[in-house]
Design brief:
The structure holds two protein chains of two kinds. By secondary structure, chain A is of the alpha/beta class. Chain A is built from 15 helices and eight strands. In chain A, strands 2-1-3-4 form a four-stranded parallel beta sheet, with helices on both faces. A four-stranded parallel beta sheet of chain A has the order 6-5-7-8, with helices on both faces. In chain A, helix 2 links the parallel strand 1 and strand 2. The longest helix of chain A is centred in the middle third of the chain and has 26 residues. By secondary structure, chain B is α/β, with parallel strands linked by helices. Among the domains of chain B are: 118 residues, Rossmann fold (3-Layer(aba) Sandwich); 140 residues, Rossmann fold. Chain B has 20 helices and twelve strands. In chain B, helix 2 crosses helix 4, helix 11 packs across helix 16 and helix 17 packs across helix 19. Chain B is globular and about 50 Å long. The relative contact order of chain B is 0.12. The chains are: A alpha/beta, B alpha/beta.
Amino acid sequence: MSIQTLEIIRKRLAERPEELSQARKNGQKVVGWTGYNVPEEIIHALGFIPVRIAIGGDDRLVEVGARYASSKTCVFIREIVGAFAENEDPYIQQTDILAFDATCLQNFRAAEVIEYFFKKDVVVLAVPRNFAEDDAKTYFVHEANEFTRLLEERAGSSLDTAVLAESVALYNDIRKTLKSIYIFQAAKDNVISWEEVYDLIQAGDLLDKKEYLTLLQQTLVELTELQQNPVIEADGDSRIFISGSLIPRGDRKLISIINSVGGRIVGDDLWSGILPHIDLDIKEISPAGVALAYLNRTPHAALPYLDLESDRRLKKLHELLSQSKAHGVIYHTLRYCDPFTFKAKETKNVLAKSGIPLLEIHTEYAGSDYEAMKTRVEAFVEMIKIKSEIVEEEAA
Amino acid sequence: MGKQLFRYSEANKEMFLNSDNITFNDGSVVTPEEIWHYLTVEGPVKYPSAFEVNLYQGNRGSRDETLPTSLKTRYLGLTFSARMESAKDKGKSIAFIQGGQAVDPYTAADTIALRPGLVNQWNNGLEYGNDINKENLRRKKSKEKAFHDMSFEACQTGGYEHVQAGNLRIDVIAPYTVLRCSDVSYGVEAHRHGPNKDVKLLNVDFPLRNQADKPWAIEYFAQNLRRLVKTLDEVTGRTTTEDDLLRAIKLHNEGRRLGTELAELWWSADIPPTNSDDRASLVSLGNLETHGDVQASLSVLKEAKKYIAERVKNGVKGHAVIDNPKRLFILGSCVGINGSRSEDAGAIVVGRDDQWSHCSSLVEEEGDPYYNLAKTTLEYPYEQGIEKRAQWTIEQIRKSRADGVIFIHNWGCNTQAAISRPIVDIIKRETGIPTYIHERDLHGLRDEQEQNRVNAFIEML
């Protein structure tokens, strides 16, 4: 069963670099952004074209990046640095300004290295570690205002509140539609796969936002025609939830392995997946209001939180696992991705208390560990399949 | 056959006995006679690994018998573990902190502040009688446990393994997080899932990226410092006032001034007045936290300055320093090269950015002490952006008349490793001095592979 709008989106993605090039010739500027707490609405409202810098899966670029940012930096960041060094990625080529945040310190270091070696114009948004404290929020509001001021300087105009309100409304609609679509992939007799939805989410990193919303709405209409009442139910499938380090465009190694051994992915809490699109509640139309909404979302693992019992990230993981009726978690950690590798054992122990098995897959972008990963994932998928069958039999 | 142990010569005993006492925080003193006894009788029995004549030793204890203050830092190092145990028995509060930060607020709150290296030192000293190999195996075993519970990609594990196992009675984990290192912040968080629930946790949130000129960032960090002092007070049950903090700032400023003067005195000499390790052990006293007792550090530092001034004046060369050694400046993570083996190869370490950046940063004594301390901390040269940090480093390299620069980082130290190349790039461009980047494993004996690279660099110089 094919969703026609997905084909249109693939076509539009192929055309997008040329479109950006034309827009720049017409005087528009492209802001390449990366960071969990970068308030994209502000970039959009200032008239820039926001493009997310998130690429992976190319071990050659990782090696190139290591020449500039050391081999001890996480592979994702190394690949980004390598991509700027080579300047062949069609989206990176089109960036005029970069907006990075310091949620993850390696992201922050990437900003510094790219600024130094490749002479890019970089704006950095600092992010407090004590994000739950009131004084941290006050600090972040100042930082968001400063971030906005630096972008205004580059835009040559001030941020108009009415325009920001339009951008916020547009992004809210995108998030709402994505959430509605996301339910379909996890449903029984699903008409769209998690993989297709994942690609759909990442298309939004690159496409024009208004067009993207239209395409999402069109997708939702198609899905509703095909499946009027999607119901998420546990079934005989090996329902896998993916957590951990991000999986950006270009990196599909783990996903393809899960598929190849018969696992069905039904949910994620990845920074490159659905997570950034949920729980974002903008209460005030201002840089401060937008930034605080970002900071108040489910926090990123790079921001330390010192009380295990009240950790909102873990609560959200439990909630999403419950919603998706997943049987097990594959916890993806990239080499030197400290925010997630440090928490792997803890997350496994926390989920074990709820009877949810977790398999950590620690990997790089090289293909050399493909078979080793496959063996482990296959055993895990088989194990949860047997377990879910036993549960079903007992229920019957 | 037993291992060969280094022994101090009786020939220099008299000179040592004529030197000053060490005075501690609690007002107690230890006399040179007691120190000599410890270094020659008690110490070699308790810690044979520290006296072992072995190429693979890391920072070899001072063998400069005519420089009494170096022997005193040695004494303070060897008695560190016993002193921490004694402090705990007397009800003193102890905090885990980050390397590279000043400890003024901890001193104000009557709390001993220990950075990761000192936490390990405390634990290492709890077991007696080990030779170097046994000691190394023991360290590796506990480190493996931490890697298992946290991440094998951790650069250092912040004492997690010791604190969570209950080996060390640390009351509070409260470092300046993300100052120079990201692993420490993840390490603080890791304590939340450990079995030891008694230890208090706090992130003292050091904001990143050229923040020193932002009033809101200074105020935010000042607020974090207030929260830190409040947390420390919750442990001790006392109330720390702004006056207490001001007094602590003045005390630490005295240490920082003396440490800076001592370093500059050392640099001013044509002939190096000490070897690499002795220089490092004396200059680092300026931060007053090195031995877990600020008064003890201060009293040795004051005396050291007199001895170094005398040596500089008389052109006395440090122990085992060759004529015209190649001068190395070390940058990067909280580690260094093997001083004595590098001296054997014809070099001397004349400075490091680590421990020096905050020693050379004095805190304003007029006005709100929290704000002043926050402002100075945000201005630490080591924590600035690439260009600014590199310019400060170049200044230190020029002052120290270094011939070569090594940027060394631990395996897994993403935060320093990531900017190693741009930093040395700028240094090389602006000074023409040869540089190289070195990655090392923090958790093992100093091996031949590492020394081969260092020696090749020295030979090239």
